[in-house]
Amino acid sequence: MLLWLVFAVMSAGVVVMLLHPLLMRRDRDLATADGAGAVYRDQLAEIEADASRGLIGAEEAEAARREIARRLLASEAAHEVPLSGPGSSTSSSAGGSRLALGVALMTGGLVPILALLVYLQAGAPGLPSQPIAARREAPPVNAEMAQLIGAVEKRLRENPEDGRGWDVIAPVYLRLARYGDAAHAYRRANALLGESAKRLAGLAEASMLAESGRVNDEARAALKKLLEIEPGHIQARFWLAFALEQDGRLGEAMADYQKLLADAPPDATWRPMVVERVAAVQSALGGPGPASPSRESTDVAPSSSASTLPAGPTAAEIEAAERMNPADRQAMIDGMVTGLATRLEKDGSDLAGWQRLIRSLTVLGRKDEAIAALDRARKSLAAEPQALAALADLAKSLGLGT
Amino acid sequence: MTVEIGHFALILALLVSLVQTIVPAWGARIGEQRLMAVATPAAIATFVLVLISFLMLAEAYVTSDFSVANVWNNSHSAKPFIYRLSGVWGNHEGSLLLWILILVLFGMAVAVFGGYLPASLKANVLSVQGSVALAFLLFIILTSNPFERLDPAPLEGRGLNPILQDPALALHPPLLYAGYVGFSMAFSFAIAALIEGRTDAAWARWVRPWTLAAWMCLTLGIAIGSWWAYYELGWGGWWFWDPVENASFMPWLAGTALLHSAVVMEKRESLKVWTILLAILTFSLSLMGTFLVRSGVLSSVHAFAVDPERGIFILGIMIFFTGGGLALFAARAGALRQGGLFSPISREGALVLNNVLLATATGTVLIGTLYPLALEAVTGAKISVGAPYFNLTFGPLMVPLLLAMPFGSFLGWKRADLKAAGERLLFAAGIALVGAVIALAVVQRGPWAAPLALALGFWVMAGAVSEILFRARFGQAGSAEVMRRMFNLPRSAWGAAWSHFGVGLMVTGIVATTAWQSEKIVALKPGERAEIAGYTLEFRGVQPGRGPNFSEEIGRLVVSRDGQPVTELLPSKRLYDAPRQPTTEAGIHVALSGDLYAILGDAQSDGGHAIRLYFNPLVRFIWLGAVLMFIGGAFSLSDRRLRVGAPRKARKTAAVAAE
């Protein structure tokens, strides 16, 4: 509310400033008369001063005086016939006033309205400032944490061969989003203490996040070693499949994802994430794939709607999205939404999924699609009054009509 | 909330600059006072709004508000306060906002201090200025919005390039931009003059302070950039003919020419058409500099494709203003009446020579900068045009310029006596010769041309001194009279002398450093010694250190000369925390006779360290010269007098008849 008040005051101030000269009565402006003449008269005065101080001789002064006098005459002659036309001196009359009033009305109306329209397109009025100090104050643990990190860092500078120190600090860096540092720490810990499943997984995650979510060579190597140490490690399998997807080897990625799904216990929290990848790969491959994946997703759907709410993108995915450039981020978000939509087309009984889809589409500004999704959800869930009520609430809160 | 206020202020500024572009120009066209008068409050409002916007972005940087994408991309909460602040313009979006801020600051200055201007000229000038602001505000809002938000906000920022974490970042871009953008004033005045069809001595008088202020800022900005590259990049050089450097150097050359031709126009009403053209070209070169640096076209032509939107947008702005300006010039230049005549040997003639040489020099730099880009765009071949090209083309052009420079100050307006001027410069010529002989005797090595080039520097410096002495009638009048005359000299005369002296000083510095630099690469173990240029350096090993956001290895070198201890050099290698990047910090011993410059290299397998040593004789003169040019400009700017060309030789009857 305060924000809009500030905007209003700013706009009003600007409008007042702009309209002031337009609405003021102005008879004849003296300033036009003779700017150039003033310059030449000053020049003449300077000649006198120079001559009296003896900087130039009397004859030189006389010659200069004559030249300037000629300029002065020329400028005055030019003024009698203004370039802008003969009507200029009389236009401050009634016609001029009406014109000024019209311009004033246009300016006063359009400037604030257009500013507001552009701002509504580009701005984020609901988002408060988030200075780091305020965010650090929120959990007081953070201050201690910072001290602790400082102490460990100091010890590591003095004794860089301390593998345990690197091992302790690595996950902390990771949590603080200092991915480069985290990858470095994991690398050192792996080298000094030997490779363990935990450290390899950490290294893979940190170096991926450090590169905007790209599964780079270092991460791939770490994930492969991780699979040697611990065959069937879910995270490793998932990210390796994701790496295949990134390389454009969609078929292989799909096969790996499906193997993962086949091995997944029905209530696994990571299951929806894999399902979404499957859907995304499917749509990338062009339309619904072979029979098996669609059967797969129909198998999956009831269990996911029966279990806890789908987790949505994991923290890691969000982080990855944040680190991407805007175009990639948009592509990733679009991929997720499309995946979700495809899944719901096939199995419409997942209320939470519908809710998420509608919300996402609204946030993305694709309001028409959101409304269409709302209609489809109502049709799919027509037999469940509770679900319909929930949808109605959602629609109201998002302002999607009744 | 503050971030959003900044965003809204920026959008409001866009709309106000739209009003500033249209309404006053329309008013000037139909002669309606009230419409013209809108220019003043509009220019003030735009400035206030952009200032609010800039302050809000700065606030987000200082408080590390990572919900702002721009802050998150370029800052880090562990950075010291000063770099969090200067980081505001250490990136594409922020530096553009600074560019616009300075642009509208100039606009506001005209609005507030331009009361003496005829109303329609002022309206047209501010309208053109408003259109430049409009173009860049559109650019920033559409393609480079610094107020884009992230939700949820990341925990920590990505940090600023360590090379930019330096006090020079606080000064270099603002000064450079003040120079670039200041030339927009000359442009706006030129366009307004073409629209109104008025170009006279008074016009030149009104443009002068703006051009001069811009030129001063650009001079200092380039010098600080060169100094920064010298101590931070660790190559021991001070100028690399890098395209980014050339991008700032071209407007400087053109601006210097403009400054001199505007003097002719102000005093004699000559060179009108050329001055107007130079004003348009100088700003076009500034725009091109902005385009080259900001579009990414420079690092590689392919960077263009990475963000085609931005590059093409700036290219469009550049084409619009350059093309529009030149088209208007072509249409109206014929209507401009020519002013006073002059003979080739005269002050005017000397200034024309200055302009011809400077314009040609600008052209050579332009070709050297754009040719590789064009070639890469067309054939894909990557070539680099470096120092050899510029030394062969730019260097020879500077020789006649420097030779003629002292003559120019001794020639009278309209027509002059070259022989008399030569006689008055005998003293300066003597000094130059003696200086060259002494240099040859002292150094006894290096290229044969170096002492001659050095003599050029002495010649220019001595010429500047002789001019002041001559005008004060030194040697002809008593000392009290000489003092009185010196005080009475116009400040613009002092300004010219200081600036010309600065040029000479810079030339000596450049020649000495280029010809007689010593370089040595050694591998030293602790306790071992190396010698360079008469200094003995003893290596005392390497110690770890820790700064606010970096860890470093500091090498210690104890310097002595003839057994006397001189100083300690502490070159270091830093590794920054975020982003994790190394930098080298040179250890520099500063002395007027030359800098001792040490860079710590990598550790060797045998426990030693590679160390690069340089001795750069008289290198400080280069930047000192630039500072003198700045001071000269300030003198001239503070001169309230309105200069008039009084023909010095008393053949006035003939001169008058000639007109």
Fold and architecture overview:
The complex is a heterodimer of chains A (402) and B (659). Chain A is mainly alpha-helical. Chain A has a domain at 153-231: Serine Threonine Protein Phosphatase 5, Tetratricopeptide repeat, CATH 1.25.40.10. Chain A has 19 helices and no strands. In chain A, α17 runs parallel beside α19 (385-398). The longest helix of chain A is centred in the first third of the chain and has 29 residues, at 94-122. Chain A is flat. Chain B is of the alpha+beta class and 659 residues long. Among the domains of chain B are: 178-303 and 319-406, no CATH class; 407-516 and 621-641, no CATH class. Chain B is built from 22 helices and 10 strands. Chain B has helices at 2-30, 33-36, 39-62, 69-74, 81-86, 92-113, 119-143, 167-196, 201-232, 243-268, 272-294, 303-306, 308-332, 347-379, 387-410, 418-424, 426-443, 449-471, 479-488, 491-516, 620-637, 652-658, and strands spanning 518-524, 529-532, 535-546, 550-561, 564-569, 572-576, 582-585, 587-589, 594-603, 609-617. In chain B, strands 2, 3, 4, 5, 6 and 7 form a 6-stranded antiparallel sheet that branches. In chain B, a hairpin with a 2-residue loop joins β4 and β5 (564-569). In chain B, α10 (243-268) packs antiparallel against α14. The longest helix of chain B is centred in the middle third of the chain and has 33 residues, at 347-379. Residues 302-306 and 642-659 of chain B have low confidence and may be disordered. Chains A and B meet through α1, α2, α3, α4 and α5 of A and α1, α2, α3, α7 and α9 of B.
